[in-house]
Amino acid sequence: MKRNYLSPKPIALAVAMMIAGNSAYANQNVTILEDVVVTAAQMTTPTTIELDPKVPRQPLPAHDGADFLKSVPGFSIMRKAGTDGEPNFRGMGGSRVNILADDQNIFGGCGQRMDAPTAYIFPEIYDKVTIVKGPQTVLYPGHGSAATVRFEKEQKTYDKPGYDVHASGLVGSFGRHDEVVDANLGNKDYFATFTGSNSKSDNYKDGNGTEVHSKYHRYSASSSVGVTPDNNKRFELSAGRSNGYAAYADRTMDGTKFLRENVAAKGQIKNVSDLVEKVEFQLSRNTIFHTMSESMRGNPSSYMDVTHDTNAARLTSDLNLRATTKAKVGLDYSQSTHGGNMPGMGALAITDDSEFKNTALFAEITEELSKGKKIIAGYRGDYWSVIDKRSSMSSDTAGQTRTELTNSGFARLENQLSGLQNTNSFVGTGRSERMPDYWELFSNRRDGIGNSGGSNYTNDNSALMSTKTEKTYQLDAGLIHKSSKFEAGISVFYNQIKDFILVDARNETYTSGAYYTPTSRNIDAQTHGAELNGSYALTNTVKFNSSVAYVKGKNKTDGLPLAQLAPLEGRLALAYDDKKHSYGALLRLVAPKDEVAVGQGNISGQDVAKSGGFGIFSLNAGYKPNKKTLIAAGVDNVFDKAYAEFISRAGASVAGYTQTTRVNEPGRTAWLKATIALD
Question: Which of 6, 324, 391, 440 could form a disulfide with 368 if both were Cys (CB 3.0 to 4.6 A apart)?
């Protein structure tokens, strides 16, 4: 009989926090915790979703940025083990989903995507997560063609000495426990912040009771200090560090180091003139040091280190061109260097293998055409310089430099419908041109031909010069309705992708611990789909929520289905909330997936096989003893179903563990979370 236990020690912490919330701080001004448990995110404005990462979510997210996005219709998370999944939106993965932390790009280091950018993000230490669907903005570095995801820290301002603190503790099945603190203080002249997170879990078991090699531990700390000379100026210095380890069920190595160090300086000056409403600047440095190793499997001598260092600068200005016209213009610059070593071949020192430089100019204009009607349009031009720093023994483009100018733009009309009260419509068209990333140019080869060294062990057929930029031409449209009892949103899209960068790993597999290098090649593709969500207040205390996500696509060049498109998915949720007690149920339904292209996909992974449909039922409850304290609990996968997502890595042979076709999801998972907010 399978049993999942909650550790008593973190539960005691949660209870202590609840008691503290009832007594010591009873007379403080407090932050009201509006939501209890989020089960499905809704569009807040056209093409945009805003999320509060400090509110509990079901299913229980891991500590990283990818799993946090599970509740957003259209997102699928590629399972590798207990953590470090990779987000896929509308069938688009890798750098097509632009991940930003305080508007800084974070790039992983592993050539086989062991550490996706979201692996270095701890969602709860941020204040807001904003998702822009499709190529409907040009404002941010990285410029995702499928979506832009911003994890944002909103600095508090104080007219008099004050503080605010967010703290939480979580315990769950499989030895899971999290601790998070986000503290801010300041007055009218200065401010300071501190954030810290710790998350740890043992191996989980799937619904069959089979243990999965999946344990992890991650921790982070960051701080910032700043001054506010007057109401119009703010300047800030910040630094952060995070690290940890993670076991993987999809490959022959684990991640034994995920070190990220970050320093940044930023400033803001408002009300510069009648024309210039605001000027902002940011300088940042992010360094990644990642180690892949077999030490967690008893072989510490087998390891490999990789680094990815990024220096960036950003300058933006908000302009009031006239009463009805506003603009945001800016400049981005970044220099990103990737390196690594090969201890197994005697190369212990880390040497650089590539360098990406990018300079971008962008502008986005909003014109109020009339009351309730506006048009937003933008353009972004990126100049790229990419250097192959590999040796001539491992690359046929060693020492060569590739330069590109990519052009992206969009236009969107937003209109408040006069014939349908409380309803906004939008329609937009966009073109996104994406430069191939490190994994498409350097980790993969351009074709299936190898030299005398053997194609399975070398990268000699470089993709640097032959892989074209990817151009997405997309139409987005939708409606948003909000009234006292009923909220609904629909977002539809259709695109044609010219020179889509397909990663083709057919006939390539792990053999004797060495992997064959997949092919990066250009094809023409097309996708279309929709996301729908709605909520209806049945009574003052009972609400019904639902969402549906659908995407379909075709590889037009090969005459195959486009790989890595998630199946049709729907969610139904019913919740009771009287502002003190709450109860909720969530049913997630996923259709079978028969259209596959086995061995094809993107830098994150490739299609494994067809998949069956499944339904997962989960329950949650909450208690608010006062306005600043929340106790939430839940059981995910109540019926302990054994299942795997279609978007998943293939299960690897790990000594002591059962190999599965895909990496199976966790079985029944119980959790308890206590949150306190003070100001």
Answer: 324
**298 Cβ contact list (under 8 Å, min separation 6):** none
pTM over 0.85: yes
pLDDT for 260-316, tens place per residue? 999 999 999 999 999 999 999 999 999 999 999 999 999 998 999 999 999 999 999
The number of C-alpha atoms within 13 Å of 195 and in the hemisphere containing its C-beta is: 23
Separation CA 615–CA 587 (nearest Å):
7
Q: Which residues of the chain have pLDDT under 70?
A: 1-35, 446-460, 507-517
Tokens of 675: 């949150």
Look at residue 3 and tell me if it is in a domain.
no
Domain that holds residue 141: 8-678
CA 129, 133, 139, 141 torsion-angle sign? positive
C-beta separation of 267 from 302 below 8 A: no
Distances (CA, A) of 198 to 174, 215, 262, 390, 630: 16, 14, 18, 37, 20
The number of angstroms, rounded, from the C-alpha of 377 to the middle of its chain's C-alpha atoms is 25
Whether 2 is in a domain gets the answer no
CATH of the domain at 673: 2.40.170.20
Mark 637-658 as b/e (b = at least 16 C-beta within 10 Å): bbebbbbbbbbbbbbbebeebe
Cis, bond preceding 59 (omega within 30 deg of 0): yes
CA distance linking residue 53 with residue 194, whole number of Å: 17
Domains in the chain, number: 1
Q: Which residues contact 341 (CB under 8 A, 6 or more apart)?
A: 304, 305, 347, 348, 349, 350, 351
Residues near 539 by beta carbon (within 8 Å), at least 6 away in sequence: none
Mean pLDDT, the chain, rounded, equals 90
Contacts of 540 (CB under 8 A, 6+ apart): none
Nearest to 144 by CA among 408, 493, 475: 408
Number of C-beta neighbours around residue 159 at 10 A: 9
Other beta carbons within 10 angstroms of residue 203's beta carbon come to 17
* Among the listed residues 663, 649, 659, the one whose alpha carbon sits nearest the alpha carbon of residue 88: 649
- 147-152/97-101 β-pairing: parallel
Coil vs helix vs strand at 62:
coil
pLDDT, residue 28, reads 36
CB-CB contact of 108 with 116 (8 Å)? yes
- Give all strands (DSSP E) within 295-400, no chain letters: 299-322, 325-342, 347-370, 373-388
Cα–Cα dist 191/198, whole Å: 24
